[in-house]
Amino acid sequence: MHDNFLTLAPTQLLEILTFSHEATVIFISSELHIGFINTSMLNIWGKKNDIVSHRLIDVAPEFENFIPILQEVWSTGKPFKAKDTPANTMDGGVLVQKYFNFEYRPIIDKEGKTYAIINTATDVSDRRQALLDKELSERHLNDELLAINEEQEAAIEELRATNEELFETRSNLNKANTQLLESEIRVREILEQAPLGMCMLVGPEHIIEIANESILKIWGRSKNEVIGKAHHQARPELIGQPVYKWLDEVYTTGRARKNHEFKVMLYNHGSLREAYVNSIYQPIRNAEGGVNGVLVIIEEVTDDVKKRMEAQRTQDMLNLAIEAGGFGTFYYNAVHNRFTGNDILKSWFGLEDGNEISLNLATDVICDADREKVINAINTALTYGSGGDYDIEYSICAPGTESLRMVRAKGKAIFDSDKKPISLNGTLQDITELKQDEQRKNDFIGMVSHELKTPLTSLKAYLQLLQIKAVKDPFTVVALGKANTQVKKMTAMIDGFLNLSRLESGKIYLDLERFDMMELIEEVVNEFSVTSASNQILFNRVNPISVHADRSKIGQVATNLISNAIKYSGDGENIEISCLVKENSVVVSIKDYGIGIKPEDLERLFERFYRVDTSDMKTISGFGIGLYLSAEIIQRHNGKIWVESIYGEGSTFYFSLSI
Questions:
Q1: 3-class SS of residue 4
Q2: 277, 289, 317, 409: least surrounded by Cβ within 10 Å?
Q3: Predicted TM-score (pTM) above 0.85
Q4: DSSP-assigned beta bridge partners for residue 198
Q5: What is the per-residue pLDDT across 204-227, written as a single tens digit (0 to 9) for each?
Q6: If you count DSSP H runs as helices and E runs as strands, how many of each does the chain have, helices first?
Q7: Which tens digits make up the pLDDT trace of 545-589?
Q8: Cα–Cα distance, 652 to 112 (Å, whole number)
């Protein structure tokens, strides 16, 4: 490299760092004196450029939490990285919390001691040059030398003194040159260890003078392959790509060039790989201002770009699926109280294209009977600690429509680091036709069950008359008893369907009274003890437990659970029943040692018409409404019902009511 280029390259190299979009500051002492800081970092800190050479604690006390980390890096020589780290920075004179990915990289000399720390942060743009003007210093020394020569010609008698001054001046000049050489070495070391890819190209052939490890990794090359060679010879994979042209233009015109997320094909073990980079091509000037080289700074962002592209493809597929499925999507900005959605949702709510409205205008479209519960569900979802889940069914009375639209809304709330709600996002599904089908089915079930009950009542009466008249014929008595038992089972099934129909239509009512739960359970147990001789029911009656509930319906729940325990147990297996007071509730448990329930069936056990589908269940009758009705009855009493089971060992059903 030419002498004038070696003289000016360090200054210009640090000057070029100011063009990087990544914020950078260099600390040059163990007390964290600031030796360099670029504009991007100044903008982040909210400071002016008069803080260079000052200690960090003096000019930015808001960063005192980071000082111990920097001192640790200085003393140990070990780098430190962090992501998504909060920091308070000045913005218009006010402290504002922001988040940064940053790195503290120590710079080590040949003796293994730290003499600088590079602090980089994301989104760097522009680097500030803070080196001293060496050219001015040299000119000043030359002026002093000229003055000494003039004094020597003017006064021979002062020759000794002049010679001494000349010697001292030359000594200072040598020291300055030594310092300049040390400064160049340090700048080269900083460039070599910089986290960004950097290289220096010299002359019109763009000879590769310096290439740090970061840029070699991006290029897919080693130092032996590129150092000292012309750029186009060292990297032939760029033929047909615009990089050669850009380097020539920067060298010829002296104008820098920046590229954002430029797509380039890079060398990769004998083949090419697709990559995306942010790059800066900066001209390097000599003492006369002419261009004698190009500094290249590269940051590879391939992973970020591809992740963003993949996310966009995923979002497009999701939008297509939502549109094909006829789902409405909604977005509620909890910070600004603004509500909007996709075109399907807007058509349901009577919104115009591009409309973004306050939440209360959106809830005004909800039918009066459902509006309050929807608002409560939204408030619950937006409360931190609730899980943020939003799942509700309601009806819409959109302006300009003559019929109701029933929808199911599912969503999830998002919270910030301060546990405050940011948004509530989700989907809406039109369930109008589904609900109408369910209502028609419930009406049909209710009608058929009602019609079946009349002839069944007559049949039961005839069987009872026959039992009275057939007391002398044992076979007939037994046969009529079994027939009567089957009639009772059919009656119970029909009653279940009637209760289901009433429950679904909202016509089932609770006749609340105060009664003894122990007495009710004992009555149910006594009934089963007579009709189920193959299983022994164990129940220890203790002190009375008074509850306020619908005695008949709670009895129906107990009957159903005990009946199931007998049904799914083998002959001779015991059924254990307990009734205990825990805190402010009475808890009833029915335990069997039967076939048990698989874990995947437990969550759906209380759903309407749900039956476990296993080979053990094929011989057991039922329609899957008993547990559903029991759960609905207990829930309407504001109680709880649940089950614990080990497959192959048995199950325990519980229900609790408040006392």
A1: helix
A2: 289
A3: no
A4: 297
A5: 999 999 899 999 999 999 999 999
A6: 20, 23
A7: 999 998 988 988 898 898 888 888 877 788 999 999 988 899 999
A8: 70
Nearest to 643 by CA among 608, 618, 606, 611: 606
HEC-encoded secondary structure of 314-333? HHHHHHHHHHHCCCEEEEEE
One-letter amino acid for residue 646 of the chain: I
* CA–CA dist 174, 10 (Å, integer): 18
* Placement of tokens 């910030």 in the chain: 416
Q: Which of 256, 301, 247, 297 is nearest to 274 (CA)?
A: 301
| Single-letter amino acid, residue 80 | F
Length of the chain: 659
- Residue 449, pLDDT > 60, answer no
Q: Hey, is 473 helix, strand or coil?
A: coil
Residue 356: strand, helix, or coil? coil
Characterise 385 by phi-psi region: left (phi > 0), alpha (psi -120 to 50), beta (else). Answer: left
Q: Tell me the pLDDT of the chain averaged across its residues.
A: 79
Does the pLDDT value for residue 179 go beyond 80?
A: no
Strand, helix or coil at 441?
helix
Do the beta carbons of residue 564 and residue 627 sit within 8 Å?
yes
HEC per residue, 129-156: CCCCCHHHHHHHHHHHHHHHHHHHHHCH
114 - beta bridge partners?
Answer: 108
- What Cα–Cα distance (Å) separates residue 638 from each residue in 66, 385, 510, 659? 54, 22, 12, 11
Read off φ and ψ for residue 611, nearest 5 degrees: -130, 140
Helix pair angle (432-469, 474-504), 10° resolution: 160
Q: Is 375 helix (H, G, I), strand (E, B) or coil?
A: helix
